[in-house]
Amino acid sequence: MENIQIITSDFIKVNVTNSKNDSVAFEKKFPKKFTILELKEKLEIVTGGSSGTMQIELYNGDKLLCQLDENNRLLGSYPVEDGMRLHVIDAFLFSEDYVEKFELTEDQYNQKQDTLKSFLKKNKLGKYNEEEMKELEEKRKQAVEEEQRKAEQCTMGSRCQVQVKGQPSKRGVIMYNGELEGKKGIFIGIKYDEPLGRNDGAVEGVRYFECQPKYGGFVPPSAVEVGDFPPLDDLDDEL
């Protein structure tokens, strides 16, 4: 009689849902040699939950097969097969935002080891990644400096070309350079050569310059190129 050898994969591919949003499933692959505790630690990344408060249910379709409730037991020792679903139940997903922040002091919250904040710190993710945050801050600083440089070039009365994403190029004359009431940042007011604008030089009842209706517009300095840009009609007349 021949010996029959059954070869099975060392990994299992499952869908993962959680109690905060069970309509979204993530397909993940895990080693069968993982303990349930190791599985929970990996599921922290997927769900944002805490391994210390996490419960896992195993489903085949909509049928609940069992709970993976022994932290030291191997994942492969449970009747889990490819295509099944792991459903993560974790009160932490709700209490983190709505309960603990109100019941604990800031110091007490920072000392806890099972919070999303401690997880982000431990893995140097998001705002706790100093190198990434420095890079983002440097890019923000460079963008602000570039916007200021462009604004300085936008002198009153200068001809310019305006290019806003998703819109055709427009030409006109710079009529205003400064802040707008109720808005952040510097804006350049343009009197366009054609009725391609949105106003007559006034925004929300505040007038910044005079022009005909639909000949005025306000754009960020980055959208403005100052130069010898004659009206487009003049170009059409050239032979």
Residue-averaged pLDDT: 81
Radius of gyration: 30 Å
If you consult CATH, what is the topology of the largest domain?
Ubiquitin-like (UB roll)
CATH superfamily descriptor of the largest domain: Phosphatidylinositol 3-kinase Catalytic Subunit, Chain A, domain 1
Question: Roughly what percent helix?
Answer: 25-40%
CATH class value of the largest domain: Alpha Beta
Overall tally of domains: 2
What is the annotated CATH architecture of the largest domain? Answer: Roll
Largest sheet: 5 strands, mixed
Q: What is the terminal separation in angstroms? A: 96 Å
The largest beta-sheet arranges its strands as 2-1-5-3-4
Number of helices: 7
Provide the succession of SSEs: EEHEEEHHHHHEEEEEEEH
Broad structural category = alpha+beta
* Beta strand count: 12
Uncertain runs are 1-7, 94-103
Strand proportion: 25-35%
* Bulk shape: elongated
Short overview:
The protein has 239 residues and is of the alpha+beta class. Helices cover 28% and strands 27% of the residues.
